[in-house]
Amino acid sequence: MPSLAPESARTAARRRSSAPVVLDARVLRGSGGGPDKTILNSPRFLKDAGYRMLCAYLRDPADPGFDRLRAKAEERGAPLVAVDDNGPLDFGVVPRLLNVCRRERVSIWHGHDYKTNALGLLLNRFWRMRLVTTVHGWVHHTARTPLYYRLDRLCLPYYEKVICVSEDLYRLSRECGVPADRCELLENGVDLDDYRRRRSAAEAKRRLNLPPQRLLVGAVGRLSAEKALDLLIRAIHQLQRDGLVADLVVVGEGDERPRLEALIAELGLADRVRLLGYRADLPDWYEAMDVFALSSLREGLPNVLLEAMALETPVVATRIAGVPRLVRHEENGLLVEPGSVEELTGALGRLLRDPDLRDRLARAGRRTVEVDYSFAVRMDKLRLLYDRMLGRV
User: Fold this and answer.
1) Residue 39 pLDDT > 60, yes or no?
2) Does the pLDDT at position 235 exceed 70?
3) What domains are there in the chain, each with its CATH number?
4) Angle 183-15-162 (CA atoms, 0-180°, nearest 5)?
5) What pTM, to 2 d.p., does this model score?
């Protein structure tokens, strides 16, 4: 077990003379979600700027999802560090992470959730680092969520920089006591080269062995209550009752699968709705969708919306959090009120019946992402933030 003694002055001086190392730290559930796309995509963009970024994940050793995350990391060339975490009472997490910080000579700790935020403050007592965190949103609600939220509220004011991915999260962070000069709005972005449409929806459907003439609605995300996928399934059922037949595919995994499967059976939609689980060929599915739907009740700024828009798939999304800043109603997508099956059904039906509207919104969506949500531009801003913290500018 590594020592918990603070580093010596000589060690600190030697560390400052080497290339800066950034440790992105996050707790892993399953094979990850939207924030993990940002984390795993970041190291290659920072490499040319003289930084070495490592992606450290606290994972349950029994969770097979880490193998999928490892495959994603290898695909992007992201250095991955696995840290065993056996739950809230596993105090061995602290020395394990401290060992990583010392071995890799970490200069910047970048947390991404309540637990890594608390751990960063603790580890900084034994290995001095600059502290940054990104607030992605407190969207996954469980019985313990109020406790986690209170813990985060206590931690955030002690971080040197708090990055928020949407304006509402910026306001919440300020309400938590984070000073304005420490709070940064830095929205998510998408790699425009990775997400560029290469085939029509009909061609993509053939590639996936789907009927090219059949209308397809799609959703991507964790199968959890806050995603409100039950409302989307009910909307597909209502469209069918109204005489508009469309299929629905949902890419993702999660605890809500049994409940969603029961609903699909109850509504007689087994031949129309498919829960695909995890898919490595996600861009192919985006391209096959005639409409992408986000039915969530809570989000920050969803990466899946950026990805769909970058691939010129028209979107319907709920009017929550940072979504209206990205999706402008009638201009580059359609917005509906969260929790409203009627509005969701109406917006989906309107798009499915009007190919010209789909084409117009799809082209506008791509332009929006190109102008305002490029991942390369986002990483330039993050690199400048790191530079300023380390006195490199």
Assistant:
1) yes
2) yes
3) 9-189+375-389 (3.40.50.2000), 201-372 (3.40.50.2000)
4) 10
5) 0.88
